[in-house]
Design a protein that fits this description.
The structure is a single chain. This protein is mainly beta. It has one domain (about 1-200). Helix content is about 0%, strand content about 55%. The chain has one helix and 20 strands. It has one helix spanning about 60-65, and strands at about 1-5, 10, 20-25, 25-30, 35-40, 45-50, 55, 70, 75-80, 80-85, 95-100, 100-110, 115-125, 130-135, 140-145, 150-155, 160-165, 170-175, 185-190, 195-200. The strands form six sheets. The chain has a four-stranded mixed β-sheet with strand order 8-5-11-12, with no helix packed on it. Strands 16-13-19-20 form a four-stranded mixed β-sheet, with no helix packed on it. It has a four-stranded antiparallel β-sheet with strand order 15-14-17-18, with no helix packed on it. It is globular and about 45 Å long. About 25% of the residues are buried.
């Protein structure tokens, strides 16, 4: 079964400009647009979201996980039995994480350090804090990240293994992460029937916009 959700837009800005800018994620970005990506952590059926002129599909997760340029405005979409409101603003970055019939919306911090790599951590594990740490040394990259929140940090690239340990004592080993100077790696933590799972990807700007 394939579901298609068309999101209606209201109050869209009518003025468009042709000025483009460069970010560490990619080039050709209009400062009038918002940058939006959708992460499908878990869905029971194929799911499509249309936000402005961009399509995000659970059957094309590589493209959906890239930042797409979206006109600022007010958008609504139905997920399960609820309507979700999404209001992206110009020049800001947003990550929407779809986990079952739930949607978490995060405003992201843009990575602007070309000499370092950014790690972005989203904790969607139910009601439990998470510590993101180096596996062997136990040194914390993120200490006690609350459920349904995110953390980010820019560090020197390291070829080491990382582990996430929950307040309950459960843990998941991530191994080494993709790290490049100027790059950004995101880690989404969620639970599937009580088992910890992750989605890991590098930030990019979708082309052909």
């Amino acid at each position: 079964m394939k579901r298609k959700i068309i999101i209606s837009a209201f109050l869209l800005l009518a003025v468009m400009v042709t000025i483009e800018s460069q970010s560490l994620y990619g080039s050709g970005i209009s400062p009038e647009n918002a940058l939006v990506r959708v992460i499908f952590a878990e869905t029971e059926a194929a799911l499509n979201l249309e936000i402005g002129n961009s399509n995000f599909s659970s059957t094309s997760i590589t493209d959906s996980s890239k930042y797409h340029q979206v006109s600022p405005g007010m958008y609504f979409f139905e997920l399960g039995s609820e309507w979700i409101e999404f209001i992206p603003q110009s020049g800001k970055y947003f990550t929407l994480v779809i986990n079952g019939e739930q949607c978490q919306i995060f405003e992201d911090t843009e990575h602007n350090s070309p000499a370092k790599t950014q790690i972005y951590f989203y904790n969607l594990a139910t009601g439990d804090e998470a510590t993101f740490h180096i596996t062997d040394k136990k040194d914390a990259v993120f200490q006690s990240t609350s459920s349904k929140t995110s953390d980010q940090v820019a560090i020197n690239p390291l070829d080491i293994d990382f582990t996430i340990t929950m307040g309950s004592g459960k843990s998941i080993n991530l191994g080494s992460l993709p790290m490049t100077r100027g790059g950004s790696t995101s880690v989404i933590l969620f639970e599937n029937e009580g088992t910890l799972q992750t989605v890991i990807f590098e930030a990019e700007i979708a082309t052909g916009l």
